[in-house]
Design brief:
With about 200 residues, this protein is an alpha+beta fold. The chain has helices spanning about 1-40, 60-80, 85-100, 100-115, 115-120; strands spanning about 45-50, 50-55, 125-135, 145-155, 160-170, 185-200.
Amino acid sequence: MKNIDTAFRHVRTFSLLIITGCIIISCFAVYKSFGLVSQMQSKIYILANGKALEAYSSDRKDNIPVEAKDHVKSFHKYFFSLDPDDKVIKDNVTKALYLSDESAKRVYDDLKERGYYSGIISGNISQTIYVDSVSIDIDVYPYYFRCYAKQNIIRTTSVVHRSLITEGMLRNVSRSDNNPHGFLIERWITVENKDLSTENRK
């Protein structure tokens, strides 16, 4: 009888250990499965030139500095890249105005009223811009930015190099084809826009 009682206790203990182990393994398997599913859902595949490229999604807050800087660069590129062609000017300015509020529209209207764009067309002038850097303060919303850039104004006989510094605020808006980063530039002003040097064209 003692052997039967001892054997029964051993079997019961062994059974409890097996059941506890199964529960732990099952919980671990469920946990890892949820983690794997979540990881797979964060992956996307992009088809480019007939090849499937793997990409990962991330929270917007992780990309705010990068996207905000690219948004500011894109706006300045569209607004200040001009050629002596009315259609090119309208297309570029229209793209820029999708990325900003009425502060940029006021600057555009003022330049247009002063005949700036007409002078570019009649004088066969091209204007290019290179953004040196963009600083973004993401600690306070809306986000403050300052853009440092260089302009080249190419005339028939000369090239003028100018320094351009602008600043403004960025607020979040819905993403769209016209505004892929989902930001809107507000209270945009030009802090500095001065000639650095002039060189004659040969």
